[in-house]
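EI: anyone free to look at a 220-residue chain?
SC: sure, send it
EI:
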Amino acid sequence: MVAPAPRGGSDGRRGRPGAGPHGRAGLYHAPVAPGTRLVAIADEAAVCTRCPLAATRTQVVFGVGDPDADLLFVGEAPGRDEDLQGEPFVGRSGKLLDRLLDEELGIDRSAVYIANVVKCRPPDNRDPRPEEITACRPYLTEQVSLIAPRVVVTLGNFATKLLLDTDQGITKLRGASYPVGDTVLVPTFHPAAALRGGGVVLAQMRADFVRAKQLIGPVA
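SC: here you go
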């Protein structure tokens, strides 16, 4: 298992996993973390017309959480609820994600950052198309770079394949960790898969969340 070296936050220190720059979890709970560089990127994304999804979205779903988080979750794309509310993972899948954060890591979503590969809802919740992923990738690249998490947890096939640059599916890749640049990536299922697949998939997700927690390790 890869153990990342400790690193400093915006003020050179960290609180518990996901804590804000003052060492307090829950400091940030806004879609773009006001006062950070993410605001400029979010403003650009909000008027993006790089792909046809711009014509059908209600609003761009940029991301939510602590911009100094040790833990970044990356999902696939917004669904109906996310498109309406402007925040990722607010429907049934989001409720399961919140539950796993609480039960396996002892934190809530304000202590992490949550984003998606694609920032606009595909019509009828279809899979995002390659050209849509390509058009949106620079925003995710900026998010990863600016947040600089210790661990990235990819939720499902699309995020995992993109960030690991692989054609292998999530079933083969989960259960391990992968160094990617200055971070470590932990692939797991999308919460929607656990809602469909029952106890076995949920148990595997729990194990992956525990792996992510172990990789974050002690903090300063």
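EI: Helices lie at 38-46, 80-85, 92-105, 130-147, 157-164, 170-173, 191-197, 199-216.
SC: 👍
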